[in-house]
Design goal:
Length: 329
């Protein structure tokens, strides 16, 4: 028996393209909707591609009328914290208003399963570590606030219509597909591991460490890094649970281990064989000292276990991708 059709919104982006890969491998028929404003058509590993906008009802009508979509996975949010502070209206329009448009189209076509890509930014400044899903949510920037708004929206829509959802709150996504054919490509880049590796490829002169006086073993921030393929495998498990009628859920996704900025740089130096010069600067406003996930809930409920728990493996997979991506000297 063939598996159902899954619509991946934002499937030409970093996490979305890896999700399309996993869905295809699992035997699902995949439709990708992406306006390519931040995604990359050439990174899609297969399936059916529709260039269109999440906020355009006509584009959504085209997709839902042409394909018997069973579930939707939403990866089409804008996700840069600094940009969200500078352009809050753009973030609320894209991340919240456009999601309303998507949910309206789903209701018109009787699509009742929704997987939402959320973030640890919904928690704001942590009051305990590791952070459980029950931690109070008090985001400190518009990006986190828009994600939390959609989480609340999903709860209300589910209560009114019976739609089922799974919310997956990421910590620090990193790495690339094992084959090295798809990976992280952001313009501009803001994530630590790619920035460090861009020094090794010659695209940057050095990496800046923001703050060396945090209450951590080496004075630099600790973060929980999770491999992108472990993220997408968690989405696959969440999807299968929804299709089996297991109800709504909210899960953290992380390795439950913190690595410091210094540890990331040292590991990258070992893997790349490059000196990777580092300079230090003062703390950035709003950077918590420690962000580590308590992912017990998804481990217990769905049997999820990360396959890439070691920082070396995560950075090595990213390096395989970034050295291919680097422009020729």
């Amino acid at each position: 028996m063939s598996k159902p059709v899954i619509l991946v919104v934002g499937g030409a982006g970093y996490i979305g393209s890896h999700m399309v890969l996993d869905l295809l491998r699992a035997g699902y028929e995949v439709i990708t909707l992406d306006n390519l404003s931040r995604g990359h058509r050439e990174l899609l590993p297969g399936g059916t591609f529709v260039e269109g906008d999440l906020g355009n009802p006509d584009d959504l009508e085209q997709v839902f009328s042409a394909h018997p979509v069973k579930a939707v996975m939403h990866f089409a949010a804008h996700s840069l914290v600094g940009e969200s502070v500078e352009q809050p209206l753009d973030y609320y329009r894209n991340n919240v208003v456009n999601t309303v448009t998507l949910l309206e189209a789903m209701q018109r076509h009787g699509v009742r399963h929704f997987i939402f890509s959320s973030t640890a930014a919904v928690y704001g400044e942590p009051e305990q570590t590791p952070i459980p899903e029950t931690h109070r949510c008090r985001p400190t920037n518009p990006y986190g606030a828009t994600k939390l708004a959609v989480e609340r929206l999903l709860q209300d829509v589910s209560a009114a219509s019976g739609m089922s959802f799974s919310i997956l709150r990421y910590f620090n996504a990193a790495g690339a597909a094992a084959e090295g054919n798809i990976g992280e490509r952001h313009r501009p880049e803001t994530h630590l591991i790619p920035l460090v590796l861009q020094v090794a490829t010659g695209e940057r002169e050095d990496i800046c460490i923001f703050g060396t006086d945090y209450p951590t073993p080496d004075g630099t921030c600790l973060r929980d890094y999770i491999h992108v393929s472990d993220l997408t495998r968690a989405h696959l498990l969440a999807l299968e649970a929804l299709l089996q009628g297991k109800g709504n859920s909210t899960y953290n996704l992380g390795n439950a281990t913190g690595y410091s900025v210094t540890q990331v740089i040292e590991t990258a130096r070992t893997i790349t064989g490059h000196a990777i010069p580092a300079v230090t600067s003062g703390r950035r406003p709003g950077d918590p000292a420690i962000l580590i996930a308590d992912s017990t809930a998804i481990r217990d409920a769905l049997g999820w276990r990360p396959a890439f728990e070691n920082l070396d493996d995560i950075i090595r997979s990213a390096w395989n991708w970034h050295r291919k991506e680097a422009p020729a000297a």
